[in-house]
Amino acid sequence: MNLLKAVIFDMDGLMFDTERLGVEAWSNVGQKLGLNITKELMLKVIGVSWVSNKKIFTQELGEFDFYNAQALFHEYLNDAIVNNDIPVKPGLMDLLDFLDEVKLKKAVATSSNYDDAMFFLTKAGVYNRFDAIVTGDMIANGKPNPDIFLHTAGLLGVSSEECMVLEDSINGIKAAHSAGMKPVMIPDLIPPNEEIRPLLYAKLTSLADVILLIEDMEK
């Protein structure tokens, strides 16, 4: 039996189908500000903090008012969610219920900032389902550094080896592996590449599959 005491969730693209909304939002920002924000550039910033976002955008586009672009991004995203509800990924609620039943701790570790995370989690009605919530602005070094996962494990009172991390992004998988945890990838917009595959504990197609994975681990 593999020792498992906690499951740590990424948020965007893993729990919620917000990565696609993010691509739409950046496309809208590019049109409004006359910036050449390509899909390739958008994919580069998936799973990283806003500090890293700014560095990547500036490297690609040169100096511009990033904070104005960030505000327009949030405006588009928030309007879309307010008007249409947050798109919850299939299997999330069943997985949360299962983890409650088997008494495994649950946490969120997201590169999004605190205000965004609280808005999404509250809107989806899952804010109170987690034992800890850690956001990108709470730590010094974002994914692919392991800091956010190590901090989360500390809050949960468990060791790295006792944690499974659910991620959709390459940076998130790198961070989970560096933290010494069990990285499980459920791809959203970006499939695993040759660099990532050896780091994976498992690759699944949906959150519902996590239930079967944990049940197999406990046999």
Concise structural overview:
The chain is of the alpha/beta class. The protein is built from 9 helices and 6 strands.
Supply the key terms:
Rossmann fold, 2 domains, 47% helix, 6-stranded parallel beta sheet, alpha/beta, globular, 219 residues, single chain
Molecular structure report:
The chain is α/β, with parallel strands linked by helices and 219 residues long. The chain folds into two domains: 6-17 and 88-217, HAD superfamily/HAD-like (Rossmann fold); 18-84. The protein has helices spanning 18-33, 39-44, 50-61, 66-84, 92-101, 114-123, 147-156, 170-178, 208-217; strands spanning 6-9, 105-110, 132-135, 163-167, 182-185, 202-203. The radius of gyration is 17 Å and the shape is globular. The termini are close together.
CATH architecture verdict of the largest domain: 3-Layer(aba) Sandwich
Top CATH class of the largest domain: Alpha Beta
CATH superfamily descriptor of the largest domain: HAD superfamily/HAD-like
Poorly predicted tracts of residues: none
Query: Strands of the largest sheet, in order across it?
Result: 3-2-1-4-5-6
Secondary structure class reads alpha/beta
- For the residues shown, what is the average pLDDT? 92
Major sheet description = 6 strands, parallel
Radius of gyration: 17 Å
- Secondary-structure element sequence? EHHHHHEHEHEHEEH
Distance between the termini: 6 Å
Task: Classify the beta-strand content into a percent band.
Answer: 5-15%
User: Count the strands?
Assistant: 6
Query: What is the helix fraction of residues, given as a range?
Result: 40-55%
* Structural domain count: 2
Which outline best applies?
A: globular
CATH topology of the largest domain: Rossmann fold
Q: Please give the oligomerization state of what you see.
A: single chain
Give the number of helices.
9
